[in-house]
Design goal:
Blueprint lengths: L20 H24 L5 H26 L6 H22 L7 H24 L2 H5 L1
Helix pairs in contact: 1-2, 1-4, 2-3, 3-4
């Protein structure tokens, strides 16, 4: 039988292999809004292009690493260590990692990985809240 009932639940969306695509895009938009606004503001104010460039470049790197790790997982090859994936996320690649997790269906069910991933996302949110609204008080502490 080759109808919608015989497919896995994540294959039922029309033409997409991502379950709950609209909800996930909304979450992506929400969590990227503050860092994108902050990084773009720094660039437009002439302070620095580093943050905006880093988010873009390191996100592309994250997507490539997740793709490579998923491929290695399927073929039984030596895997990319999770601490490398988390280091790339921490360096600003978490938006790309979030997209890659959904597109490649990779690292989405491992709870310990997801907890650390979302802590990294929260850390970036706190950084930008501090930079934009509090006056860099957290940065001054370090």
């Amino acid at each position: 039988m080759n109808d919608a009932r015989s497919r896995r639940p994540d294959q039922r969306s029309s033409g997409s292999n991502i379950q709950y695509l609209k909800l996930k895009l909304l979450v992506l938009l929400i969590v990227c809004a503050l860092p994108l606004f902050g990084a773009a503001s720094m660039w437009l104010d002439g302070i620095s292009r580093v943050a905006l460039t880093a988010y873009a470049v390191v996100s592309v790197l994250a997507v490539l690493l997740y793709w490579a790790d998923k491929h290695k997982a399927r073929t039984g090859a030596w895997r990319i260590p999770e601490n490398v994936l988390h280091a790339v996320e921490l360096a600003g690649g978490w938006p790309g990692a979030l997209i890659a997790q959904q597109v490649f269906r990779h690292k989405t069910r491992k709870v310990s990985f997801q907890i650390l991933f979302w802590l990294i996302v929260v850390l970036h949110q706190v950084f930008w809240i501090d930079q934009l609204f509090i006056g860099s008080t957290l940065s001054a502490m370090f």
